[in-house]
C-alpha cells in the first residue's frame, strides 16, 4: 500500500512539473506577443479581439501554474483539501480545452474565411500604412515565396500604389495605376538591382505573365495550406496535454482515496 501511494505521489509530481512548464511557456509566449505583436496582428483585423484572446491565453497559463502548485503541494503534504482543489481546477481546464477544440473544429471553415478576408484586407488597405503589418506581411511573402493575396495583380489596387478604396463598388480599372509596383519581398532573387528592375509591372502584361524574379503565386492559399499542414502537430500536442491532464485527475482521486483510507486505518 505504501509503495503504491508513493508511486502515485511521484507520478502526480511529475505530471504537475509538466503542467508548470506548459503554463510558464504559455504565459511567457503570451507576454512576448503582448510586447511585440508584429507577426500576429497580420492575421487579425480587430486588435481588441486580438488582445482579448491573448488575455485569455495568459489566464490559462497562470491557471496551469496554480494547478501545478496545488498538485505538488497536495501530493507532498498528502492533503485531501489541496488535492480536491487541484482536481476541480484541473477539471475546469480540461473541459475548457475540449470545448475550445470542439469549437475550432466546428468553425474551421469560418476561420479559413476570416484568414482570406484578413489577407486581402492587409494587401489592399494596410500594407505600407501600418508598419507592424507591413513587416509581418513581408515576412509571410518571403517565407512562403509568394506575392499578394491571390497574385501580384492584387498590388495594383492597393494603397501601396496610392489607390484609395473608399467604396469597393466604386473601384474601376480606370482608377488603377497602368504601371504599379510590388514590394521588394515579392522578389525571388537576392540581387536588388534585378529586383528593382522587375518590380514595376503593367496591369495588362502581368495578367498573362509575371516576369522572372517575381513570385507568381499568391499568399492566400499557401498560408491556408501551411496552417492546415501544421495544424496536425498542434492537435497532437493539445491531445497529449489533455491525456496527461486526465491522468492527473485520475491519480489525484486515487491518492485522495488512499489518504482517506490511511487516515481511517490510523483512527481505528
TrEMBL record:
Its main location: membrane. GO terms for cellular component: plasma membrane. The keyword Mitochondrion does not apply. It is a multi-pass membrane protein. It comes from the Eukaryota. The chain crosses the membrane at residues 12-35, 50-70, 82-105, 232-259. It is found in: Membrane. Keywords: Membrane, Transmembrane, Transmembrane helix. Belongs to the tetraspanin (TM4SF) family. This is Tetraspanin. The gene is CSON000395.
